[in-house]
């Protein structure tokens, strides 16, 4: 255990903390109370390292990267912190000696939904890697009171409930009132003469909120580095207007407080209405302005020359949400520190770097000028000036080409295009998988690649093996360390040493025994939480990710319907029993995605309760998909569903987590699947469907889904069962899905080529069935996948960011 805490001291601290915090004995305390007491005990160790880390950063005046993200899906802190402190086994022993079940304590911690999916989880993996690699860093985001939402399933439908993760306090966060800053919205801008022929711009008549930071420790594995996740919370400048209160106008008295608390209540408010759009823009500017102001203040403690800022600070914009940082840094430099525009622009571009996470046009944010200029009047002026100078640059390069100017301008057609501002205002633009970056360069951002080829680069995403193998899959992690040593924990390419063991009968047997134990544990959990009996000897086929049409959960469920129809016609059909497991949240306003969830649950109700198919198929929808649930599901998976339409998924990171845990991928050649295929070879992955190039060509061809409907009986029967009452007495309930696939329903028919790829998907699924029957072959394939997953560590990704984009050097913190 840590030099600072022996077992007896830790026991004493936990007992004392329970008494101090709850006025109880340990024996009378709930799991949640023991959890809080244990956190405060280990925080002693963490805080010493944390203070030392930041003292060293400050004294040595090192360069720091600020990872700016609307989302941080951290998962539970407790278990991961113990693993990185190398205290996990000892704390488990201490709790057991105190008569406490460690798992109950870990499960008592809320799993905060401060992210939507892959984007937020990637940010969390990156923070873990930054600390493990001893790189000076802050994650900067928002301390949402309720996160995204807690998903409940009622009568098969998704219902959103507040995710009240702060209900029982927040033992990990430390409030830093001394770093609070003011953030201004609305009002007007007045030009004040400086007396030298220049003007200073001053915002007046504004509303403002106070941004208060809460700091969370991010612990490096096996070292003394503790970086910081800084989440900003909004507080009213004036808590209560007593004048209005005393007049009995209580609502008006608390107006300012309500405005402030609303700002950091919920991640991604529904934005189908203007109020939602405005709140989302407020959130983005709020955490960016707070961060930029604080960073510049810190820089000024050591420096007077702003040209040194890029040597000390890097901003990484995690997708388009933080793009307003480009204009805010300009505002702070020009308006508040008298830096000349051209100098400020050069500094800003050197500081900022942009990661593009999407090929989907609707996710490249655009803001209506009316809203943007009203809410952020000075920022709007700055963006207008950036755009004016940039358009002059375009004219100088391309001449007067109105169509090209309109296509590339930051402001056009009444909208501000945030992705374009990010590209123009940054020195680096990266995609997140090799295929994704090529699509950006040659399709989506082709004009910008021609203009700034030197800015574009690829950084294939990664995941942290500390959480996704060492913490999530103790059995497999133990077998690997016993076989090849534990070097893989910090250097994942060490897993390559497992390759010869694919031919070792004893290793294969133990490997498959661990997989079976994980499946049995998951089956038990599903029985307890869902009341569904599943067969641990069936193939566990899992698709867990955000619900979006391009991710094609609909293809998966249509294939299940196809299999069910075949079993109804031929009950003796020879197939390995299969358990299909889904987990997904749909955005609150995304109606069709929510209808797909209803369909999955409707299919589950029919299939799971039909005795004639003899349990050959089971379907389970796990509600409220989150990090802690993923840690149960992924180690138990046999098959990983990565079936997005080729050319639509930027990278994916779930595919990497499944691979690392010995699941085999069934997928399209999309995102990082392409690189997984390159690592494992064609015999250790199940690839199907059109390529990205074929998808592009299909968009330009005449594509008629009715042709497939007419020619493929399995497809025709599956689609018919959507509207013939098989899955709901209301035959109109799923008609929208039927129409969207065949007729378009307000858009292109079968926009994501579900029907086009169906036959090849069904073929790949039978290939899986056949391969699984040969358990020796399956075990070899699974072991090869684990052994070849070394490339997909976020440590590798972060090293590349640090060396190629940030010019960031590690700093070793001594004991």
TrEMBL record:
Q: What is the recorded name of this protein? A: Alpha-1,4 glucan phosphorylase
Q: Which residues carry this modification: N6-(pyridoxal phosphate)lysine?
A: 657
Q: What is its EC number?
A: 2.4.1.1
Which NCBIfam families has this protein been placed in? P_ylase (TIGR02093)
Q: Which PROSITE patterns match?
A: PHOSPHORYLASE (PS00102)
**What does the organism's lineage look like at the top?**
Bacteria, Bacillati, Bacillota, Clostridia, Lachnospirales
Q: Which reaction does it catalyse?
A: [(1->4)-alpha-D-glucosyl](n) + phosphate = [(1->4)-alpha-D-glucosyl](n-1) + alpha-D-glucose 1-phosphate
Cite the GO molecular-function annotations of the record.
glycogen phosphorylase activity; pyridoxal phosphate binding
Protein family membership: Belongs to the glycogen phosphorylase family.
**Can you name a GO cellular component term?**
cytoplasm
Q: Which cofactors is this protein said to need?
A: pyridoxal 5'-phosphate
Give the UniProt record's GO annotations in the biological process aspect.
glycogen catabolic process
Q: Does the keyword Isomerase apply?
A: no
Q: What does this protein do?
A: Phosphorylase is an important allosteric enzyme in carbohydrate metabolism. Enzymes from different sources differ in their regulatory mechanisms and in their natural substrates. However, all known phosphorylases share catalytic and structural properties.
SUPFAM superfamilies on file: UDP-Glycosyltransferase/glycogen phosphorylase (SSF53756)
């Amino acid at each position: 255990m840590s030099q600072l805490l022996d077992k007896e001291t830790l026991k004493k601290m936990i007992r004392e903390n329970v008494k101090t915090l709850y006025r109880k004995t340990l024996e009378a305390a709930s799991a949640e109370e023991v959890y809080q007491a244990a956190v405060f005990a280990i925080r002693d160790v963490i805080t010493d390292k944390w203070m030392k880390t930041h003292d060293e950063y400050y004294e040595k005046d090192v360069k720091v990267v600020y990872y700016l993200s609307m989302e941080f899906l951290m998962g539970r802190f407790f278990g991961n912190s113990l693993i990185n402190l190398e205290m996990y086994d000892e704390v488990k022993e201490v709790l057991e000696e105190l008569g406490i079940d460690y798992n109950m304590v870990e499960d008592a911690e809320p799993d905060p939904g401060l992210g939507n999916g892959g984007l937020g989880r990637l940010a969390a993996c990156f923070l873990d890697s930054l600390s493990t690699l001893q790189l000076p860093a802050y994650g900067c985001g928002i301390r949402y009171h309720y996160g995204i939402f807690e998903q409940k399933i009622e009568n098969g439908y998704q219902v959103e409930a507040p995710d009240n993760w702060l209900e029982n306090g927040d033992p990990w966060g430390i409030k830093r009132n001394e770093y609070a800053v003011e953030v201004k919205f609305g009002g007007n801008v007045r030009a004040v003469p400086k007396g030298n022929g220049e003007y200073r711009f001053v915002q007046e008549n504004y509303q403002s909120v106070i941004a208060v930071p809460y700091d969370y420790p991010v612990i490096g594995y096996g070292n003394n580095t503790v970086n910081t996740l800084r989440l900003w919370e909004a507080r009213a400048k004036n808590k209560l207007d007593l004048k209005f209160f005393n007049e009995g106008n209580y609502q008006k008295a608390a107006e300012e407080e309500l405005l402030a608390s609303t700002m950091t209540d919920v991640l991604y408010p529904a934005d189908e209405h203007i109020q939602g759009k405005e709140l989302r823009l407020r959130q983005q500017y709020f955490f960016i302005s707070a961060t930029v102001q604080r960073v510049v203040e810190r820089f000024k403690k050591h420096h007077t020359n702003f040209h040194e800022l890029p040597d000390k600070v890097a901003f990484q914009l995690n997708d388009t949400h933080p793009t307003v940082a480009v204009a805010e840094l300009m505002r702070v430099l020009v308006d508040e520190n008298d830096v000349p525009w051209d100098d400020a622009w050069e500094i800003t571009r050197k500081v900022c770097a942009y990661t593009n996470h999407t090929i989907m046009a609707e996710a490249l944010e655009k803001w209506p000028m009316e809203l943007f200029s009203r809410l952020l009047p000075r920022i709007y002026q700055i963006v207008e000036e950036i755009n004016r100078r940039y358009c002059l640059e375009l004219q100088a390069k391309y001449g007067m080409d109105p169509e090209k100017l309109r296509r590339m301008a930051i402001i056009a057609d009444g909208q501000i295009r945030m992705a374009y501002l990010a590209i123009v205002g940054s020195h680096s633009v990266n995609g997140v998988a090799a295929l994704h970056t090529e699509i950006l360069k040659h399709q989506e951002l082709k004009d910008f690649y021609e203009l700034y080829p030197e800015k574009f680069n690829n950084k294939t995403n990664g995941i942290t093996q500390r959480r996704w193998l060492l913490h999530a899959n103790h059995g497999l992690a133990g077998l690997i360390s016993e076989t090849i040593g534990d070097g893989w924990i910090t250097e994942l390419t060490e897993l390559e040493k497992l390759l010869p063991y694919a031919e070792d009968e004893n290793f294969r047997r133990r490997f498959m025994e661990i997989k079976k134990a994980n499946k049995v544990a998951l089956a038990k959990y599903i029985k307890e939480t869902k009341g569904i009996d599943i067969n641990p000897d069936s193939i566990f086929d899992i698709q867990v990710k955000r619900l979006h049409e391009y991710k094609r959960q609909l293809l998966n469920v249509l294939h299940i319907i196809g299999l069910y129809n075949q079993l109804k016609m031929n009950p003796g059909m020879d197939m390995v029993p299969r358990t299909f497991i889904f987990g997904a949240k749909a955005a609150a306003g995304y109606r069709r995605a929510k209808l797909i969830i209803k369909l999955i649950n409707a299919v589950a109700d029919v299939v799971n309760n039909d005795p004639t198919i003899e349990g050959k198929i089971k379907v389970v929808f796990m509600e409220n998909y989150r990090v802690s649930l993923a840690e149960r599901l992924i180690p138990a998976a046999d098959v990983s569903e990565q079936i997005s339409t080729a050319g639509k998924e930027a990278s994916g990171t779930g595919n990497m987590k499944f691979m690392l845990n010995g699941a085999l991928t069934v997928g399209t050649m999309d995102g990082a699947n392409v690189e997984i295929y390159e690592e494992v070879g064609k015999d250790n992955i199940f690839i199907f469907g059109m390529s990205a190039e074929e998808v592009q060509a299909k968009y330009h061809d005449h594509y008629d889904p009715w042709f497939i409907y007419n020619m493929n009986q399995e497809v025709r029967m599956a689609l018919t069962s959507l509207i013939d009452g098989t899955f709901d007495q209301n035959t109109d309930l799923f008609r929208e899905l039927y129409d969207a696939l065949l007729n378009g329903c307000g858009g292109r028919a079968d926009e994501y080529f579900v029907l086009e790829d169906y036959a090849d998907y069904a073929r790949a699924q039978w290939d899986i069935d056949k391969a699984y029957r040969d358990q020796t072959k399956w075990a070899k394939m699974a072991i090869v996948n684990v052994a070849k997953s070394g490339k997909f560590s976020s440590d590798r990704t972060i090293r590349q960011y640090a060396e190629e984009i940030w010019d960031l050097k590690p700093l070793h913190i001594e004991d």
